[in-house]
Amino acid sequence: MCYHPRIECQDVASFQTTRARNSELWFIKSRELEEAILGYAARYSTRYVVKMYALAIEGNHIQKVAQFPKANRAHFMRDFNSAVARAVPRYQTKYPGGPFWARRYSSEYLPGDADIEDRFFYTVLQPVNDGLVDDISDYPGYNCFEDAIRGRIRQCKVVKWKQYHDARRWNASVSIEEFTETCTLKYERIPGYEKLSQSEYETMMRVKLKERTAEVLQQRRCKSSLGPQRLQKIEPGSRPKQTKTSGPREHRPRVLSKNPERRSAANAWYFSTYFEYRRCSKQYREGNLSVEFPRGTYKPPLFTVAFCGGIA
Protein backbone atom coordinates (compact mmCIF):
# COMPACT_ATOMS: atom_id res chain seq x y z
CA MET A 1 0.00 0.00 0.00
CA CYS A 2 1.49 3.34 -1.03
CA TYR A 3 1.28 6.48 1.08
CA HIS A 4 2.46 9.88 -0.01
CA PRO A 5 5.01 11.21 2.48
CA ARG A 6 4.20 14.03 4.82
CA ILE A 7 6.73 16.65 3.86
CA GLU A 8 7.84 18.95 6.65
CA CYS A 9 7.45 22.66 5.95
CA GLN A 10 8.51 25.20 8.54
CA ASP A 11 6.97 28.19 6.74
CA VAL A 12 3.45 26.86 6.15
CA ALA A 13 0.79 25.92 8.70
CA SER A 14 -1.08 22.63 8.47
CA PHE A 15 -4.24 20.94 9.68
CA GLN A 16 -4.01 17.57 11.45
CA THR A 17 -6.74 15.08 12.29
CA THR A 18 -6.40 11.84 14.26
CA ARG A 19 -9.42 9.58 14.76
CA ALA A 20 -10.07 6.80 17.29
CA ARG A 21 -10.48 3.26 16.05
CA ASN A 22 -13.98 2.44 14.82
CA SER A 23 -14.80 6.12 15.48
CA GLU A 24 -15.56 5.22 19.10
CA LEU A 25 -16.46 8.13 21.38
CA TRP A 26 -13.84 8.08 24.11
CA PHE A 27 -13.22 11.84 24.41
CA ILE A 28 -16.46 12.47 26.28
CA LYS A 29 -17.65 12.69 29.88
CA SER A 30 -14.17 12.80 31.38
CA ARG A 31 -12.84 16.15 32.50
CA GLU A 32 -9.65 14.45 33.68
CA LEU A 33 -8.93 13.02 30.21
CA GLU A 34 -9.68 16.37 28.60
CA GLU A 35 -7.27 18.14 30.95
CA ALA A 36 -4.62 15.50 30.29
CA ILE A 37 -4.91 16.02 26.52
CA LEU A 38 -4.58 19.79 26.93
CA GLY A 39 -1.57 19.15 29.14
CA TYR A 40 0.10 17.03 26.47
CA ALA A 41 -0.63 19.68 23.86
CA ALA A 42 1.02 22.23 26.17
CA ARG A 43 4.03 20.03 26.92
CA TYR A 44 4.85 19.05 23.37
CA SER A 45 4.02 22.37 21.72
CA THR A 46 6.55 23.92 24.13
CA ARG A 47 9.13 21.18 23.61
CA TYR A 48 8.93 21.38 19.81
CA VAL A 49 8.31 25.15 19.56
CA VAL A 50 4.93 24.73 17.85
CA LYS A 51 2.73 27.67 16.91
CA MET A 52 -0.73 26.41 17.86
CA TYR A 53 -3.71 28.22 16.32
CA ALA A 54 -6.59 25.91 17.23
CA LEU A 55 -7.28 22.61 18.97
CA ALA A 56 -10.51 20.57 19.02
CA ILE A 57 -11.24 17.54 21.20
CA GLU A 58 -14.50 16.13 19.95
CA GLY A 59 -15.91 12.71 20.70
CA ASN A 60 -13.76 10.44 18.60
CA HIS A 61 -11.09 12.67 17.08
CA ILE A 62 -8.63 15.46 17.76
CA GLN A 63 -7.92 18.25 15.29
CA LYS A 64 -5.23 20.92 15.30
CA VAL A 65 -4.26 23.95 13.26
CA ALA A 66 -0.57 24.51 13.83
CA GLN A 67 2.73 25.59 12.33
CA PHE A 68 6.06 23.89 12.98
CA PRO A 69 8.90 26.41 12.57
CA LYS A 70 11.47 23.72 13.46
CA ALA A 71 10.11 21.37 10.75
CA ASN A 72 9.35 18.70 13.38
CA ARG A 73 5.65 17.96 12.92
CA ALA A 74 6.39 14.21 12.82
CA HIS A 75 8.09 14.30 16.23
CA PHE A 76 5.32 16.37 17.80
CA MET A 77 2.53 14.15 16.44
CA ARG A 78 4.39 10.98 17.47
CA ASP A 79 4.76 12.09 21.08
CA PHE A 80 1.37 13.76 21.39
CA ASN A 81 -0.65 10.90 19.88
CA SER A 82 1.28 8.31 21.90
CA ALA A 83 0.61 10.20 25.12
CA VAL A 84 -3.12 10.53 24.35
CA ALA A 85 -3.39 6.82 23.49
CA ARG A 86 -1.87 5.92 26.87
CA ALA A 87 -4.13 8.39 28.70
CA VAL A 88 -7.43 7.01 27.38
CA PRO A 89 -7.42 3.69 29.32
CA ARG A 90 -6.15 5.58 32.37
CA TYR A 91 -9.23 7.81 32.54
CA GLN A 92 -11.83 5.75 30.67
CA THR A 93 -12.07 2.57 32.73
CA LYS A 94 -14.34 0.83 30.21
CA TYR A 95 -11.76 1.00 27.42
CA PRO A 96 -11.26 -2.65 26.34
CA GLY A 97 -7.57 -2.30 25.47
CA GLY A 98 -5.60 -2.64 22.27
CA PRO A 99 -4.47 0.04 19.79
CA PHE A 100 -6.37 3.28 20.18
CA TRP A 101 -5.97 5.23 16.94
CA ALA A 102 -7.65 4.03 13.77
CA ARG A 103 -4.64 4.85 11.59
CA ARG A 104 -1.95 7.45 11.22
CA TYR A 105 -2.98 11.09 11.31
CA SER A 106 -3.94 13.11 8.25
CA SER A 107 -2.22 16.41 7.52
CA GLU A 108 -3.04 19.09 4.95
CA TYR A 109 -1.21 22.33 4.22
CA LEU A 110 -2.70 25.79 4.76
CA PRO A 111 -0.65 28.01 2.41
CA GLY A 112 -2.18 31.42 3.22
CA ASP A 113 -3.38 33.50 6.17
CA ALA A 114 -6.97 33.26 4.94
CA ASP A 115 -6.63 29.47 4.83
CA ILE A 116 -5.49 29.40 8.46
CA GLU A 117 -8.47 31.55 9.42
CA ASP A 118 -10.91 29.31 7.52
CA ARG A 119 -9.57 26.20 9.20
CA PHE A 120 -9.55 27.92 12.59
CA PHE A 121 -13.28 28.54 12.39
CA TYR A 122 -13.84 25.08 10.93
CA THR A 123 -12.12 23.67 14.02
CA VAL A 124 -13.94 25.73 16.66
CA LEU A 125 -17.28 25.17 14.91
CA GLN A 126 -16.94 21.38 14.77
CA PRO A 127 -19.73 20.81 17.34
CA VAL A 128 -22.11 23.00 15.30
CA ASN A 129 -21.08 21.54 11.95
CA ASP A 130 -21.60 17.99 13.27
CA GLY A 131 -25.08 18.82 14.55
CA LEU A 132 -24.24 18.44 18.22
CA VAL A 133 -25.22 21.97 19.28
CA ASP A 134 -26.37 25.18 17.61
CA ASP A 135 -23.91 27.36 19.51
CA ILE A 136 -20.43 26.44 20.70
CA SER A 137 -21.22 27.85 24.15
CA ASP A 138 -23.65 24.93 24.60
CA TYR A 139 -21.02 22.28 23.89
CA PRO A 140 -20.13 20.45 27.13
CA GLY A 141 -16.56 19.70 26.04
CA TYR A 142 -13.53 21.92 25.58
CA ASN A 143 -13.53 24.58 22.88
CA CYS A 144 -10.41 26.64 22.23
CA PHE A 145 -12.21 29.75 20.92
CA GLU A 146 -12.18 31.79 24.12
CA ASP A 147 -8.58 30.90 24.93
CA ALA A 148 -7.50 31.78 21.39
CA ILE A 149 -9.20 35.14 20.91
CA ARG A 150 -8.36 36.42 24.39
CA GLY A 151 -4.71 35.45 24.18
CA ARG A 152 -5.24 33.47 27.36
CA ILE A 153 -2.36 31.36 28.66
CA ARG A 154 -3.69 28.11 30.11
CA GLN A 155 -1.69 26.47 32.90
CA CYS A 156 -1.84 22.69 32.49
CA LYS A 157 -0.62 20.06 34.94
CA VAL A 158 1.08 17.05 33.38
CA VAL A 159 2.04 13.93 35.32
CA LYS A 160 5.31 12.19 34.48
CA TRP A 161 3.75 8.77 34.75
CA LYS A 162 6.81 6.66 33.96
CA GLN A 163 8.96 8.36 36.57
CA TYR A 164 6.09 8.18 39.07
CA HIS A 165 5.56 4.43 38.63
CA ASP A 166 9.32 3.78 38.70
CA ALA A 167 9.54 5.63 42.01
CA ARG A 168 6.60 3.72 43.49
CA ARG A 169 8.43 0.45 42.95
CA TRP A 170 10.75 1.46 45.78
CA ASN A 171 8.51 3.78 47.79
CA ALA A 172 4.76 3.16 47.80
CA SER A 173 4.08 6.38 49.68
CA VAL A 174 5.65 8.64 47.08
CA SER A 175 3.48 11.66 46.18
CA ILE A 176 2.23 12.11 42.64
CA GLU A 177 2.68 15.87 43.03
CA GLU A 178 6.44 15.31 43.04
CA PHE A 179 6.15 14.09 39.45
CA THR A 180 3.71 16.70 38.16
CA GLU A 181 4.91 19.59 36.01
CA THR A 182 3.05 22.70 34.90
CA CYS A 183 3.09 23.48 31.17
CA THR A 184 1.60 26.48 29.39
CA LEU A 185 -0.73 26.27 26.41
CA LYS A 186 -1.07 29.43 24.36
CA TYR A 187 -2.69 29.93 20.97
CA GLU A 188 -1.21 32.18 18.32
CA ARG A 189 -3.20 35.03 16.85
CA ILE A 190 -4.46 34.42 13.30
CA PRO A 191 -1.85 35.94 10.93
CA GLY A 192 -2.79 39.25 9.35
CA TYR A 193 -4.28 40.84 12.46
CA GLU A 194 -1.09 41.68 14.33
CA LYS A 195 -1.78 45.43 14.32
CA LEU A 196 -5.11 45.08 16.16
CA SER A 197 -5.26 45.59 19.89
CA GLN A 198 -6.36 42.62 21.98
CA SER A 199 -9.80 44.18 22.46
CA GLU A 200 -10.20 44.92 18.74
CA TYR A 201 -9.11 41.42 17.80
CA GLU A 202 -11.50 39.80 20.26
CA THR A 203 -14.44 41.91 19.05
CA MET A 204 -13.70 41.16 15.41
CA MET A 205 -13.39 37.40 16.00
CA ARG A 206 -16.71 37.29 17.87
CA VAL A 207 -18.42 38.97 14.93
CA LYS A 208 -16.82 36.50 12.54
CA LEU A 209 -17.87 33.58 14.74
CA LYS A 210 -21.48 34.75 14.70
CA GLU A 211 -21.43 35.09 10.91
CA ARG A 212 -19.83 31.70 10.35
CA THR A 213 -22.14 30.00 12.81
CA ALA A 214 -25.10 31.32 10.81
CA GLU A 215 -23.51 29.97 7.62
CA VAL A 216 -23.05 26.51 9.13
CA LEU A 217 -26.62 26.42 10.42
CA GLN A 218 -27.83 27.41 6.96
CA GLN A 219 -25.81 24.59 5.41
CA ARG A 220 -27.36 22.19 7.91
CA ARG A 221 -30.74 23.35 6.54
CA CYS A 222 -32.12 23.95 10.03
CA LYS A 223 -31.71 20.34 11.12
CA SER A 224 -32.10 20.21 14.88
CA SER A 225 -29.02 19.48 16.97
CA LEU A 226 -28.69 16.88 19.70
CA GLY A 227 -28.28 19.54 22.35
CA PRO A 228 -26.24 19.42 25.59
CA GLN A 229 -28.76 17.29 27.53
CA ARG A 230 -28.82 14.47 24.97
CA LEU A 231 -25.04 14.70 24.57
CA GLN A 232 -24.65 14.01 28.29
CA LYS A 233 -26.54 10.71 27.88
CA ILE A 234 -24.06 9.29 25.35
CA GLU A 235 -21.83 6.63 26.89
CA PRO A 236 -18.05 6.62 26.38
CA GLY A 237 -16.94 4.07 23.81
CA SER A 238 -20.20 4.07 21.88
CA ARG A 239 -20.23 4.67 18.14
CA PRO A 240 -21.99 7.60 16.49
CA LYS A 241 -24.84 6.87 14.09
CA GLN A 242 -23.03 8.87 11.42
CA THR A 243 -19.36 9.73 11.20
CA LYS A 244 -16.84 10.89 8.65
CA THR A 245 -14.63 8.06 7.49
CA SER A 246 -12.12 7.57 4.69
CA GLY A 247 -9.91 4.68 3.70
CA PRO A 248 -6.15 4.82 3.16
CA ARG A 249 -6.61 4.62 -0.62
CA GLU A 250 -9.22 7.34 -0.85
CA HIS A 251 -8.29 10.73 -2.26
CA ARG A 252 -7.35 13.30 0.35
CA PRO A 253 -6.32 16.82 -0.62
CA ARG A 254 -2.74 17.77 0.21
CA VAL A 255 -3.67 21.46 0.38
CA LEU A 256 -6.70 23.15 1.94
CA SER A 257 -7.29 26.50 0.27
CA LYS A 258 -10.21 28.19 -1.44
CA ASN A 259 -7.78 30.28 -3.49
CA PRO A 260 -6.89 28.39 -6.72
CA GLU A 261 -3.55 30.16 -7.15
CA ARG A 262 -2.35 29.36 -3.63
CA ARG A 263 -3.64 25.81 -3.93
CA SER A 264 -1.93 25.29 -7.29
CA ALA A 265 1.40 26.71 -6.10
CA ALA A 266 1.36 24.61 -2.93
CA ASN A 267 0.51 21.44 -4.86
CA ALA A 268 3.29 22.15 -7.36
CA TRP A 269 5.79 22.49 -4.50
CA TYR A 270 4.53 19.35 -2.79
CA PHE A 271 4.63 17.05 -5.82
CA SER A 272 7.97 18.34 -7.10
CA THR A 273 9.43 17.55 -3.67
CA TYR A 274 7.64 14.21 -3.61
CA PHE A 275 9.01 13.06 -6.97
CA GLU A 276 12.50 14.17 -5.98
CA TYR A 277 12.10 12.21 -2.75
CA ARG A 278 11.15 9.08 -4.71
CA ARG A 279 14.24 9.44 -6.90
CA CYS A 280 16.54 9.87 -3.89
CA SER A 281 14.83 7.08 -1.98
CA LYS A 282 15.43 4.64 -4.83
CA GLN A 283 19.13 5.51 -4.95
CA TYR A 284 19.41 5.30 -1.17
CA ARG A 285 17.90 1.83 -1.00
CA GLU A 286 20.17 0.71 -3.84
CA GLY A 287 23.20 1.57 -1.74
CA ASN A 288 23.97 5.22 -2.40
CA LEU A 289 23.95 6.35 1.23
CA SER A 290 25.39 9.77 0.41
CA VAL A 291 22.43 10.91 -1.69
CA GLU A 292 20.95 14.21 -0.46
CA PHE A 293 17.21 14.10 0.22
CA PRO A 294 15.03 17.15 -0.45
CA ARG A 295 14.43 19.48 2.45
CA GLY A 296 11.57 18.40 4.71
CA THR A 297 11.73 14.67 3.98
CA TYR A 298 13.08 11.73 5.95
CA LYS A 299 15.28 8.92 4.75
CA PRO A 300 13.56 5.52 4.44
CA PRO A 301 14.69 2.79 6.87
CA LEU A 302 17.45 0.43 5.89
CA PHE A 303 17.11 -3.26 6.66
CA THR A 304 20.05 -5.56 7.39
CA VAL A 305 19.56 -9.25 6.60
CA ALA A 306 21.88 -11.89 8.04
CA PHE A 307 22.43 -15.06 6.02
CA CYS A 308 23.47 -18.24 7.83
CA GLY A 309 24.86 -21.23 5.97
CA GLY A 310 27.00 -24.29 6.49
CA ILE A 311 30.63 -24.64 5.54
CA ALA A 312 31.06 -26.08 2.07
What does this structure look like?
By secondary structure, the protein is α+β, with helices and mostly antiparallel strands. The chain has a single domain, classed as 2-Layer Sandwich (Alpha-Beta Plaits), CATH 3.30.70. 38% of the residues lie in helices and 13% in strands. It contains nine helices and six strands, in the order E-H-E-E-H-E-H-H-H-E-H-E-H-H-H. A four-stranded antiparallel β-sheet has the order 2-3-1-4, sandwiched between helices. It has a two-stranded antiparallel sheet with strand order 5-6. Strand 2 and strand 3 form a beta hairpin. Helix 1 runs antiparallel to helix 2. The chain is globular, with a radius of gyration of 22 Å. 28% of the residues are buried. The model has no long low-confidence stretch (mean pLDDT 91).
Which range best describes the helical content: under 10%, 10-25%, 25-40%, 40-55%, 55-70% or over 70%? Answer: 25-40%
Give the strand content.
5-15%
Q: What strand order characterises the main sheet? A: 2-3-1-4
Secondary-structure-derived class: alpha+beta
What is this entry, summarized?
With 312 residues, the chain is α+β, with helices and mostly antiparallel strands. The protein is 38% helix and 13% strand.
Secondary structure layout plus pairing:
Blueprint: E1 13-19, H1 31-47, E2 51-58, E3 61-67, H2 73-91, E4 106-110, H3 113-124, H4 126-129, H5 145-150, E5 153-159, H6 161-168, E6 180-186, H7 198-219, H8 227-231, H9 260-285
Antiparallel strand pairs: 1-3, 1-4, 2-3, 5-6
